[in-house]
């Protein structure tokens, strides 16, 4: 099984992100229902490891937090643009959850992730270079920002590569604890 751990996005957020999806030659836009924030890519995992990872993830105790999506940028350089993505602000609650997820995965026997966590939502990959249009696109959407939404769970997903693109399925869901900051703000 090809697995990853991610935060799902509300449909309204997926739709707002999908609205960015035009005006770039060579872009293969991610289908709106596939837009997500990856916490950890696991790759091919056998059933026993997957069960260990599931058990370790279910033990995570971490509070919910608000997710702020802001900015649009790319991975890759001018010669070879790889990905276009929407930025995600590194809220302490998000970083706390990501580090708990990372230790759960390593405790389950997988090798640690070497790359620094750079929270992002991939919007498009490229089959050919978008050229000058990319700079214009990035400046047009430089101030892109969505209203924050509250994250109260995360999930384990499988990814199946089909001829029509990736098909993601939710394999398990893990609830976060109440976000005390949000609860107190609501009471005040
Ligand atoms: P990306 O959005 O930056 O491409 C499912 O493929 C998720 O796992 C994607 O969100 C993808 O991140 C992430 N991922 C991280 N490393 C990956 C890799 N080596 N191959 C495929 N997906 C990877």
Care to count the β-strands? 10
Mean pLDDT: 95
* CATH hierarchy: architecture: Alpha-Beta Complex
As a percent range, the share of strand residues is 35-45%
Parts with pLDDT < 50 across at least 5 consecutive residues: none
CA-CA gap between termini: 46 Å
Bound molecules: adenosine-2'-monophosphate
Mass-distribution shape: globular
Radius of gyration: 17 Å
CATH topology: Cyclic Phosphodiesterase, Chain: A
Helix content: 25-40%
Biggest sheet strand line-up:
3-1-9-10
Main sheet overview: 4 strands, antiparallel
- By CATH reckoning, the class would read Alpha Beta
Give the tally of structural domains.
1
The helix tally amounts to 5
Helix and strand run: EHEEHEEEHEHEEEH
Identify the CATH homologous superfamily: Cyclic phosphodiesterase
Structural class of the secondary structure composition? Answer: alpha+beta
Please characterize this protein's 3D structure.
The protein is of the alpha+beta class and 188 residues long. 28% of the residues lie in helices and 37% in strands. The chain is built from five helices and ten strands, in the order E-H-E-E-H-E-E-E-H-E-H-E-E-E-H. The strands form three sheets. The chain has a four-stranded antiparallel beta sheet, with helices on one face. A four-stranded antiparallel beta sheet has the order 2-7-6-5, with no helix packed on it. A two-stranded antiparallel sheet has the order 4-8. 23% of the residues are buried. The chain binds adenosine-2'-monophosphate. The site of adenosine-2'-monophosphate (2AM) has 6 residues, from strand 3.
């Amino acid at each position: 099984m090809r697995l990853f751990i991610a935060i799902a996005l509300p449909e309204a957020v997926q739709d707002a992100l999908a609205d960015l999806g035009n005006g770039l030659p060579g872009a293969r836009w991610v289908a709106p229902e596939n837009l997500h924030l990856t916490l950890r890519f696991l790759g091919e995992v056998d059933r026993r490891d997957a069960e260990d990872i599931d058990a370790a993830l279910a033990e995570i105790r971490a509070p919910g937090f608000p997710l702020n999506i802001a900015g649009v940028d790319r991975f890759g350089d001018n010669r070879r643009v790889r990905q276009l993505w929407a930025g995600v602000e590194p809220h302490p609650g998000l970083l706390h959850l990501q580090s708990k997820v990372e230790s759960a995965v390593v405790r389950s026997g997988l090798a640690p992730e070497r790359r620094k966590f750079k929270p992002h939502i991939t919007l498009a990959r490229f089959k050919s270079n978008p050229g000058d249009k990319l700079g214009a696109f990035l400046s047009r959407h430089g101030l892109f920002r969505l209203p924050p939404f509250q994250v109260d769970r995360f999930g384990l997903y499988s990814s199946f590569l089909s001829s029509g693109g990736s098909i993601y399925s939710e394999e398990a869901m893990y609830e976060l604890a109440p976000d005390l900051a949000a609860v107190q703000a609501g009471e005040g």
